[in-house]
Amino acid sequence: MGVLIWLGVVAAFLVALARVKAPLIVWTGAIAGVLLLTGYAGLLGGLAAGVLWGVFLLVAVPLNIAPLRRRVLSNPMLARTRKVLPPMSDTEREAIEAGTVGWEAEVFRGNPRWERLLGTPAPSLSEKERAFIDGPVEELCCKLDDWQITHELNDLPPQVWDFIKRHRLFGMIIPEEYGGLGFSALAHSQVVMKLASRSVTGAVTVMVPNSLGPAELLLHYGTEAQKTHYLPRLARGEEIPCFALTGPWAGSDAGAIPDYGVVCKGTFQGRETLGFRVTWEKRYITLGPVATVLGLAFKAHDPDHLLGDKEDLGITCALIPTDTPGVDIGRRHYPSGAAFHNGPNSGREVFVPMDWVIGGQDNVGRGWRMLMESLSAGRGISLPALGTGSGKLAARTTGAYARVRKQFRLPIGRFEGVEEALARIGGLSYMMDAGRLLTTSAIDGGEKPAVATAIVKYHLTEAMRQVINDAMDVHAGRGISMGPANYLARAYQSVPIAITVEGANILTRSMIIFGQGAMRCHPYLVSEIAAASNVDPRTALAAFDRALIGHMGYTATNAARAVVYGLSRGRLAPTPVSGPTAKYFRRLARMSAAYAFLADLTLLVLGGTLKRRESLSGRFADGLSFMYLCSATLKRYEDAGRPAADLPLVEWAARYCLYQVQNALDEILRNFPLRRLGQVLRVVVFPLGRRYRYPNDALGHRVASLLLEPSEARDRLTAGIFITQDPSLPTGRVEFALAKVLAAEPVEQRLRTSGVSQPANKPFDAWVDELVAQGVIPSQEGAALREAREATRAAIGVDDFPRHQGVTAATDEAA
Ligand SMILES: Cc1cc2nc3c(=O)[nH]c(=O)nc-3n(C[C@H](O)[C@H](O)[C@H](O)COP(=O)(O)OP(=O)(O)OC[C@H]3O[C@@H](n4cnc5c(N)ncnc54)[C@H](O)[C@@H]3O)c2cc1C
After folding, report:
1. Does residue 421 contact residue 487 with C-beta atoms inside 8 Å?
2. In angstroms, rounded to a whole number, what is the distance separating the alpha carbons of residues 600 and 592?
């Protein structure tokens, strides 16, 4: 017993040292003190004490004597680092260095400072932004008839295009001084989310000019002349922009574009002008077919040295009016189920004056860095908002549908099988929204969070895939039968678009999140690599030695934290709150320490070869991502003022995330390239085994129940999407039916208890009339029964079409 108490005291002491980030000399003294006291108290036998002191001196002496340490440790490690450093191209380096890191670095490093998370103000819209979303955006949603857009017109109707331009929806990111709306990232995200809940085509059309495109690039890198010319015209919708990077030969590996521009002198507006002759072939370019200005990425070459000594100048971005002679643009692709404009374009030896290069001649060759920096913000806004909008749409409609649709004389949402799907829809939608909010807050806080935006791009579109799939399963035939009444199938068809664009998901998970995350979030890796790349041996060794000492302390404290938190089942881990969510903060701190330790050791063992081990990298990406999403979930609950009714959603999402982190770490260890070392590491990472479980059925039942009837929690979960009770609109029909069904339920219940049921040979209306006539129920209750029946018929109704006319002339039976 005495030994256990002593071990507990020592563990707490070591954790305290780790928390204050004690320097090496303090650690050395502290461990020596612990050994002395242990011996003095008679808790160690002579042999054990001798062995422990031997090991301690063997490690502590060389570590604390700098010249010795450099010889026996730092120098060999430096040589090894040089050997295992991965070869890195300029484009890879620029991609890795782009942007900043925020909360994701905290969870990566094993000791999240919760005050940093909870100290960030809750995201909020300005009055102007709120009024815009409640006004013009709501109005636009009412105008977006997705069946007409996707099926009949294969385009937005002209009045919708006009509305979008007139209300400057293409200029959300353009500052007011240039005539734009000057919106925050949060407002931008809210707009896209709301539109996405009504029409993916509408949302994508609006999102693209506000995401990675000419406006974003001009704002950061454009010359004053370019900004004054283009930004007001883009804000007013007088110019329609697109940005063309992808081509047939370069998709995910966009740095490998073969499109080229040769520096030359040409004639422009009657004068000899310095510029490029550009040849390109692009595809998949959103808004390309209707664009008036083409943002183009090409590789600049200067064989005649008109600009300087270098011949290959690198990727360059220019803005080319699409009516320039030689630009071939206008044909369309047909992206899965959506009708936004998207198509190929090309040009052969098109003369592009130097003034058209974004930022002018100084920015020739800087295009890749520009794109990487701009991408980091944009990909954290548009697609996460689209994914979340679809998630909320699924949550709202599927809950209502599962309540009004009855089979086996019960609402289908009461069956456990359907509950499982509803629980995923509710829990994941909460998590998605939380991730969206945390990331837009970071962007509005001035960050360009490269890793967090990759996390939300990947996970919110993957969660969208899951949630929409579940929603389709619950709606079954109602979800499959396409037509004006269907509010799900187009979102379902569009999922692969969200998965593919702005960094295809497999690549984002397996290469980017951890590849960039490790480099950007690890506190010592970059300094070590910089030292290893230093050609001066003395400064290289000194810098490497400094970083290595910090690194060793970092690894040791994370190992100590991981074991102590693991053995205490998270109870010794810190939490910034009390109450029902405290345990999730603790568990997350525990997972964070284990993750940091394992990531560190893996980087040490695999070095640059980790780049090729995409399965491992992908699992590290999952671990990091779900820690980020779990933090976001807990923060969202705090920001909302801890409403008790939301707890089932919070707990479901938190448990789901922790379970995924645990699985990721478990799978890394199971597939660890050095099997024996993997087994040793498992003792540190899971000292008491795998403790976290998938959310249980009881919790799933509480989440599912929350979706099945109106409540403030349901409203909070789905806040920000287009919500209507208008039965002439597809989603309004199911909301309307829910209200009517709930109003009729007490009457039905009473009839059931009294043993009154509809005879098999009598139509429903006739039966109700009879009940009223016989005085079994008053006439208003009869009306409630009839209204519920009628509203349900409309909500469960699907479209049918004349046999010989195809599906163009829809008979919207449900309308
Ligand atoms: C509807 C739509 C709109 C688009 N809009 C634009 C636009 O406006 N402008 C623009 O420039 N581009 C645009 N794109 C292009 C988009 O960015 C690319 O489709 C995307 O980069 C993937 O390229 P790819 O389709 O050629 O797939 P590929 O690069 O051929 O990839 C195929 C698969 O392999 C995976 N993969 C590739 N390399 C690796 C790797 N190293 N490790 C793991 N997995 C890997 C990918 O994740 C993907 O799953 C759009 C695409 C679509 C479909």
Report:
1. no
2. 12
Q: Which backbone phi and psi does 357 adopt, to 5 degrees?
A: -70, 130
Which residues are 402's β-sheet partners?
none
Residue 642 token pair: 């801890």
d(CA 369, CA 61): 46
494 Cβ below 6 A of ligand 1: no
Proportion of the chain above pLDDT 90, given as a percent = 78
Q: Report yes or no: 387 and 463 within 8 Å, Cβ to Cβ.
A: yes
- The answer, yes or no, to whether any atom of ligand 1 lies below 6 A from the CB of 245, is yes
Residue 338 Cα: closest atom of ligand 1: 1
182-to-171, 216, 262, 350 alpha-carbon distances in Å = 8, 12, 37, 34
Instruction: Give burial (CB, 10 Å; 0-12/13-18/19+) of 442.
Output: buried
The response to whether residue 504 sits with its C-beta less than 6 Å from ligand 1 reads yes
> Residues 104, 502, 735, 781: which is the catalytic one?
502
- In terms of Cβ atoms closer than 10 Å to its own Cβ (0-12, 13-18, 19+), residue 602 is buried
Beta bridge mates, 312: 301
The alpha carbons of the chain give a radius of gyration, in whole angstroms, of 30
The pLDDT tens digits for 137-176 are 999 999 999 999 999 999 999 999 999 999 999 999 999 9
Contact, 620 vs 600, CB < 8 A? no
667 is an active site residue = no
For 641-670, the DSSP string reads: T--GGGHHHHHHHHHHHHHHHHHHHHHHHH
Determine which helix (DSSP H) or strand (DSSP E) holds 296, and give its type and residue range: strand 293-301
- 574: which DSSP letter? -
Distance CA 491, CA 468 (A): 7
Pocket-testing residue among 497, 501, 505, 611, ligand 1, by greatest number of atoms within 8 A of Cβ: 501
Q: Answer whether 0.90 is exceeded by the pTM.
A: yes
Dist. CA 254 → ligand 1 center (Å): 9
Q: Which tokens in the block code for residue 528?
A: 């070590």
Residue 359 has pLDDT above 70, yes or no: yes
Predicted local distance difference test score (pLDDT) of residue 813 = 46
Note the pLDDT tens digit of each residue in 682-723.
Answer: 999 999 999 999 999 999 999 999 999 999 999 999 999 999
Q: Residues 6 or more apart from 105 whose CB is under 8 A from it?
A: 451, 520, 521
Which tokens go with 626?
């779900």
Q: What is the dihedral of CA 53, 59, 60, 62, to 10 degrees?
A: 130
Q: Answer left, alpha or beta for residue 810, where phi above 0 means left and psi between -120 and 50 means alpha.
A: beta
What residue has token string 């009940």? Answer: 771
Q: Which of 374, 507, 617 to mutate to test the pocket of ligand 1 (most atoms within 8 A of CB)?
A: 507
